[in-house]
Amino acid sequence: MKSLKFLSIAGALSVSPGAVFAADAVLAPEPEPVEYVRVCDAYGAGFFYIPGTETCLQISGYVWYQIGAASDGETPNYNGFEPDGWNKGVRARVNFDARSETEWGTLRSYIRLQADWSGTGSYSGLGANDGPVGIHQAWLSLGGFRAGYSESAWSDTVVGEVGTFGSHSDNAMSFGDQRRAIMQYNFERNGFFGVLSLEDDNYAGAGALDNNEGFMPDVVAVLGYAGGWGGVWGRIGYDESFDGSLYQVSPGVYTVNSGGFGASLGLQVNVPNMEGSSFRLIGYYADGDHTYGTLHGPAADAFGGNGNSEWSILASYGHQFTETFGASVGYQYFSDFYEGGRDVKTGLNGQSAELSLVWVPVTNFEVRSEVQYDKIETLDGTVSGYLRFTRFF
Fold this sequence. Notes:
Number of strands: 19
Helix content: under 10%
CATH superfamily: Porin
Strand content: over 45%
Shape: globular
Strand order of the largest sheet: 2-3-4-5-6-7-8-9-10-13-14-15-16-17-18-19
Order of helices and strands: HHEEEEEEEEEEEEEEHEEEEE
Distance between the termini: 80 Å
Protein name: Porin
Structural class: mainly beta
InterPro entries: Porin_alphabac (IPR003684)
CATH class: Mainly Beta
Membrane topology: Multi-pass membrane protein
CATH topology: Porin
Oligomer: single chain
Number of domains: 1
Family: Belongs to the alphaproteobacteria porin family.
Function: Forms passive diffusion pores that allow small molecular weight hydrophilic materials across the outer membrane.
CATH architecture: Beta Barrel
Low-confidence stretches: 18-22, 121-127, 206-211
Radius of gyration: 30 Å
C-alpha cells in the first residue's frame, strides 16, 4: 500500500507544465473596470463626456408633424401650400454638438441631420419615398473662428442671438434666411458683438460671369449690442456675383459684374417684468434682387429670382402670457419689388401679416399654430397656416 501511494504521488508530480497551463487557460478573466458616462456641466444641460476623452457631447433634436392649408389667391402663399387640400408635413432633426477647452478657446464641432416628408412624397420631389436625410448644417469652430456649412451671417450669427432671424414666429417672416459655406470670425464682449463672414457664392474657377468670381467670396459684416433691456444691431452684405441683370446677352456672354449690396438695421426692446415678451423692429434695403435682402417667397414665385424689394420694414410683438402659453403678431411691408435676378424695379409693393400661438402643455412638447396673410399689389391676397405638434429632446 505504501508503494501504491508513492507511485500515485509521483505520477501527479510528473504532469507536464503544458498540461497545467492548459487548465489555467479556460479560467474566466477578471472583468475590466467600466468607465460610466460622466455628466459635463461646463456647457449647459444635456452634455456628457465621451468615455476616455475630455470632449463633451450633446445629442438633441426634435420630431414634428404639421397639417396646413391655404386659400386660392393670386399672390403665392408664404408657406408654399397647395390651395386645394390638406398639406401634411413631417420633419426629423438630430444635432450633434461636441466641445472641449483648449488654450486657444473652445474647440467645437456641430452636425445637424434633417429629413422632411410631405405625407405623399418627399419634399425633394423623389416621389412617394421615405424622406431623405440631408446635412442641414456642419461646421467647426475654435475660439472666435468658425468654418463650414451653416446659416449665413445675414440671417443668423452664433453670437448676439438678439440680432438673429426676423419676427417672433417660427416662420419669422421674410428676413433673408439662407445657409451657405462660410468662414468667419465672431466676437462678443461686454454686450458688444460682431461678425465678419466670407461666404460662398456658388461660383468656382474662371468660368462664371467674369474671371474674378471663382476667387472672390461674398462678404457679410454684423455689429451690435445686447443687454437686459434688449439690443440693437446692423448688418451689411455684398453679393459679389450679382451683376444687376444676371441674364445671358448671347451664348456664353454675360453682362459685366458690378456686385450688389444689402443692409439691415434692427432693434429689440424687452418688456420689463414680463420675461419672454419683447418688441422687434427691423428695416431692410437691397439695391437689386441678389442674395442679401428679404428673399420674400411670394415675390420670388411671382417675379422669379430671390424676391427682394428695395425697402422693407418688419414689426413684431411677442407676449408670454404664462409659462406654457405665448402668442405673437407681426407685419411686414415691402416697397418696390425687383424683377427676378435684376436691379430693375417692378413698381409693385407688398405686405404680409401673421399670427402665432404657442402652447407647451408638458415639458418638451409644443403645440403651435401660425397663420399668415400675403398680398402683392394688383394681385389678390392669400391666407395660409398650419397646426404643428413638436416633441423636443
